[in-house]
Amino acid sequence: MSTLTLASDPKDAAAVEAVEAHHTQLAGELAGRVAMLIAAADRGPAEADEVRTGLVAFCDRDLIPHAVAEESTLYAAARDLPEARLLVDGMLAEHRRLTALVDALRETGSAVRAAADGRALQVLFEEHLDKENNLILPLLAGAPDISLADLLGGMHELLGGVEESEGEATGGGCGGTCGCGGSDDVDVPELDVREVPHALRHATVFGALGAVPAGRAMVLVAPHDPLPLLRQIEDRHPGVFAVEYQQRGPEAWRLLLTHG
To answer: Is position 161 within any domain?
Structure first.
């Protein structure tokens, strides 16, 4: 049964939906940055270090504050439910492991070790969010004495801005038709999102682009012409990324995105 069905109040249902959407955004951005870190590790320590620094900054800015906010709101309320106490203890232990992995990323001088730590962080975080979405939130949403809407009111770290879904984006930009930009570097990292879950796809691309330094490029492989995504990229980063189509279907669209 879905958390929306379990929610005892429409406002609580909306709060659950907002938390889950923010979880999707965080997981996607983390996945994109880790993908770029793994690709950079294959090319050399200098580039990997730059991507690693950006990944740590993302964790310090978004991922860790989100975890801290959960502890003082969702977890504090869930611990009052007898059936959730052991679960919350386990989730708190996972927060400590997540923080330890971020610290390991912060301190390592090895590109290979950074890639391994980044991948471990991604796997643990995705598993952690799955427990929150399917265990913690349903318990809280179904508790008659707990108002999730009141509990999460004003909590930006838990209900942060969520990107528009595919097909709903609006705005300007080149729409991927200008053919501008390019890169002479033959060793350009590739992000293939065809197997990425639809809900994570845009956030994964945004996270990957956040790891592409100025003067470098990334190849995006998509299952369709990603015009809504390109408009979102232009809205977020006006004039920053040049777009060049390398392949236009039928099974894949390949685009070179160059950070000017």
So the answer is: no
Residue at 167 is within a domain: no
Number of folded domains that form the chain: 2
Residues 147 and 216 in one domain: no
86/238 Cα distance (integer angstroms) = 47
Rounded Cα distance, 60 and 56, in Å: 6
Task: Examine the domain organization and report whether 217 and 125 are in the same domain.
Answer: no
List, for residues 9-67, the tens digit of each pLDDT value: 778 788 888 889 999 999 999 999 999 999 999 888 988 999 999 999 999 999 999 99
Evaluate whether residue 162 is within a structural domain. no
Residue 29 structural domain: 3-151
Full-model pTM:
0.84
Domain annotation covers residue 185: no
Query: From residue 226, how far is each of 34, 60, 252 by CA, in Å?
Result: 22, 30, 11
